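Transcriptional regulator
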Amino acid sequence: MVMAHANPLGQFLRARRAQVNPADSGLISGGDRRVPGLRREEVAVLAGVSVDYYARLEQGRERNPSAQILDAIARVFRLDADARGHLYRLAGLNPAVSPAASADYVHPTLLTLMNGFPQAAAYVFGPAFDVLAANPLGAALLAPFGPRPSMMRVVFTDPQATTFFGDWPAMADAIVDALRLNAGLFPADPDILTVLEDLADTPEFTRRWTRQGVGALPRTDKTFHHPQAGRIDLTYQTFDVRDAPGQQLQVGTAEPGSRSEQALTYLAAVHTTP
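Predicted structure tokens:
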């Protein structure tokens, strides 16, 4: 089971320690290194703590590190802002955010905003990346996966996904890292817990989840191979919804005058024809 772990802080520290190149930390990378990354004693020296203390952190015997110690470890691991925040939450120093009162409720104002992008594919995601709402182009683009799909399940269990999404590995990496960020922010969210349970035996998901990557969905270019409209290239921006924590608005736009814009127009016509 993916989430069944009594020491999530230690699990995170071990995974991230293994991803640090010793040479990047000014250490000689030669010698007998049976595992990748930094040794515990090297992390301790670089972070300015005792080897015993750092070992107890990884083993779960020390559960109350200070902010200063976490900052030092974050610097050693070269964590970005999202991963640093996740580290703080695992250590109990950053209170979890309360999710929206109803995970499925999308405020009418947000729906109006989403529908204000008539030439773009726009969606509202919940914390587990279920599509809570979509504008007409967004719904048309994702129509092969049915209404209001769970994007986590689509990416990792739908046989169409690896051909539909042009750079499937990069998309899979990004959505798993974003799910871990949300899991830290909303540790009791039932939709996140359910999707983790559902995907626990999915090798491509489990491999990425075990890697302990953390990060919000980035601004990115995506390519789709749609069964009706062919290739569509879109640039996506993702926006957090401040008055509904856990919900995100994602908007994908095509380059004006491009073949992708024409494909979106065609999809809109096909899916609005009575």
